[in-house]
Amino acid sequence: MTFKEFGRDGGKTLMLLPGTCCDWETNFGTVVEELSLKYHLICVNYDGFDGSDVVFSDMLSITEKIEEYIKENHGGKVDGAIGSSLGGSFVGQLIQRKRIHIDHGIMGSCDFDQGGKLAAKIQTKLMYPLLAGAAKENKNGRRMRKLLVSLFEMSDETADKFMECFSKFKPESILNEYYTDLITCLEDDIQVEHTKVHIIYALKMGKKYEKRYRKYFHDPDIREFAMQHEAWLFGDKEWEVPVMKAIDEFMEMAV
To answer: What are the φ/ψ torsions at residue 3 (nearest 5 degrees)?
Structure first.
């Protein structure tokens, strides 16, 4: 597991947590330079997605490693944490467990799919061939690329970049990450003193997700954007500019 820190000296600390089957370089590549001008960034690559031979084990073990790093290097506190998609599950766990403190938990396009082990195994079995075979020249590879372009509205160039990213990781890490995210549940109505939860809500994902955000978090600050899942990170300036503005607003709010 790797942590890379850079950015503005003396700036507010902002942790970046990538989504499913991604490293931070790919997930946040379009915005990291601009963020680094304003914030001191702590960029995280999980076990199995950090270029090492270590396999991703489970969500809680990774959460504990993040907690230990923040305790040892930042006195147990960060000003903000952005979790993209699955990364939002880590932000939720970090807030819920109260072993470190986050002033502003920012979650982007998180689905928070949760369920029992049987349902999770079925869902993982359905999705795993797409993720594990994403960059291969076969049917699953072609299907995954088509999904990125059509459903996630990525450009061809961006889809190619993510496909290349997917190809770097071991199938075991992909399987464990996807499955354990589904079975690692959040509590209802999470509320921590001096912590504010902010949601970057991509409306094209569907209305049901707003209900989940309000179920798991007490009085979340939900900002609506008429975009598809994480479009602001896919090189789409139409959404990058307003979402980055919202992040700045989040980070300046009193808690």
So the answer is: -130, 125
